[in-house]
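Protein of interest.
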Amino acid sequence: MNQEILVLAGTAAAMGFVHTLIGPDHYIPFIAMSRARRWSLSKTLVISFFSGLGHILSSVILGFIGIAFGIAVSKLENTESARGSAAAWLLIAFGFAYFIWGLHRAIKNKPHKHIHAHVDGVPHDHVHGHESEHVHVHDQACAARKKANITPWVLFAIFVFGPCEPLIPLVMYPAAKHNLGGVALVAAAFGLTTIVTMLTIIAVSSWGVSFVRLGKFERYSHALAGAMILVSGLSVQFLGL
């Protein structure tokens, strides 16, 4: 293996690190959903890992197709750009929808008091919300599981659709001038660095966020998660992050 391939692999690793670090969409959605959904750290990292893997492989496969069929770099760049814009809008739509759902959920479950008198004639009050009122415990648990099961798949789908813009034009095509083994090495260096960086940021941030207590505003945690995802999508679409 020649020196140039090793240099390209090192460049790919550095690009993967920077690409992930400056892209809030690579970690904010997972941190926000982990906090709102009360996912364990292991579950959060598993979901993040497979989402990141899908994110990398979608661009790698497209790059290999381009190399195999001799498609011009400019055409692949246009395709990746279109995919990036679509993925950002999907993230924006998901964040906005989740924010509205979370806000509705919080308002619906606003704690309030009921005053009643016991047989001793002394009035008492108790505080409760209406989120789960009149719902059978089994049905409520099933509904919660369904909501929880959908969210990881939504994030995964958005990430698979989203491209790794730097990978094809700056890394894979120069590597293709040498051999497919070099292409695989460079793609692996980029992908491994990207995923490790993602998981590290998510793990450290999720651990830190787990200590945050919102008190009486805890019921707004879903709305806050949606807002954070919405902002990360907007920053990608309009700030180019």
About this structure: The radius of gyration is 23 Å. Helices lie at 3-21, 28-37, 41-69, 73-108, 137-161, 167-176, 180-209, 221-239. The chain has a mean pLDDT of 81.
